[in-house]
Amino acid sequence: MKIEILPLIISLVPAALVTFIAIYFFRLHTTNEERRRRFILHKENQKQALPLKLQAYERMVLFLERISPGKLLTRMAPVGEDKQSYELLLTSTIDQEFEHNLTQQIYISDECWNTVKASKNATIALIRKMTLKEEVDSADKLREVILTELIEKGAPSDAALSFIKEEISDIL
């Protein structure tokens, strides 16, 4: 009986070896196919996402331009002489513009979004700081002081605009 098992084992070894090699190559093939499909899907998604990303960056540039104090003051004239009501008008306009563009953060990098938020907050802080100055007693004087500050130090949104331009050049 021992003699009959030995030829059976000897004939099963090559069959088992061929089976294991076939399974190995089958798994290798299916893994490569899966990677290829993922790559193609990723490439297709990138084609569709690029216009959305560029549009989001465009919207952020527009937002930063609109909240730039020089342009904001030109667009938003004071309603009366009260500096606090003018400050409130300016800051609420900035907040509304920001809220209108909240969804764009999905398409831009976290670092870029944080830069945009910092620019918005710095612009609001600038307006509030200028309102607290003693020489500012009216809305027109507030405008004048903010514009003078811009001439001396530049707009807070300038750094964010430069950052966006740099990030866009990396994408393209």
* Share in helix: over 70%
Q: Mean of residue pLDDT?
A: 90
**Cα-atom radius of gyration:** 32 Å
Q: Which term fits the overall shape?
A: rod-shaped
Low-confidence stretches: none
Could you characterize what this model shows?
There is one protein chain. It is rod-shaped, with a radius of gyration of 32 Å. The longest helix has 66 residues, at 2-67. With 172 residues, the chain is an all-alpha fold. The chain has one domain. The mean pLDDT is 90. The chain has helices spanning 2-67, 69-75, 83-100, 110-131, 139-153, 157-171.
How are the SSEs ordered, and which strands pair?
Layout: H1 2-67, H2 69-75, H3 83-100, H4 110-131, H5 139-153, H6 157-171
Q: Main traits of this protein?
A:
single chain, 172 residues, mainly alpha, 6 helices
In short:
With 172 residues, this protein is mainly alpha-helical. The chain has 6 helices and no strands.
